[in-house]
């Protein structure tokens, strides 16, 4: 019996992929996050692009002037070499408005193969200067009710398995899915540190290249793009790391490194 359960879990892990962009040299296109629309960085000034040697591979969120929140599966080897973040830019192809090197990666110590505790902190080489297009965001402390409309943003691929990233930042509105139903759909691999979101009938979702980016509600960071079966499926919701259930770790870890550079700017709610 134990062997059967192990095989099912291993098969499921292979089938349900994280939403990173495996090919960091993927071509760019003026497409969109699946089912979404064009966005301006000034609408979502907390959004950043994670780059490896200049190429986008994941998203992230500004929490403090020198601290970015992202997904552990994006940076699980904890090696900051070659990593930068780009802030304040709406498109990937334009010359970055602001690009800052990452000097330290801190992953959640309980992160595991099913992407549980999928949250990480990136410490920047220097402070970001806040402006109309570069701003921190507060952490959500509670989950809204099932069905609540939430927004996810990013530069990810246009469709499941797509080879093209979106040059233009995209936004899409989805709804929080029932947690119990989502757990059953994913063979109980969805834990209490995760939340699910989709739309009835599918067609709107985050996708590859959006990993680590923000799911927001009421101008607060509610979730971190994590994993799912395909993209925009009518059956399988997108799965996000739940910030309300991880905010204590985020706050404690971020505050530990907040003094690593001078004149830290903090969100007004802190």
Automatic annotation (TrEMBL):
GO terms for cellular component: extracellular region. Pfam families: Trypsin. One of its GO terms (biological process) is proteolysis. Residues 33-255 form the Peptidase S1 domain. The keyword Protease applies. SUPFAM superfamilies: Trypsin-like serine proteases. Coiled coil: none annotated. Keywords: Disulfide bond, Hydrolase, Protease, Secreted, Serine protease, Signal. InterPro entries: Peptidase_S1, Peptidase_S1_PA, Peptidase_S1_PA_chymotrypsin, Peptidase_S1A, Trypsin_dom, TRYPSIN_HIS, TRYPSIN_SER. This is Trypsin alpha. It comes from Bactrocera dorsalis. The gene is LOC105228390.
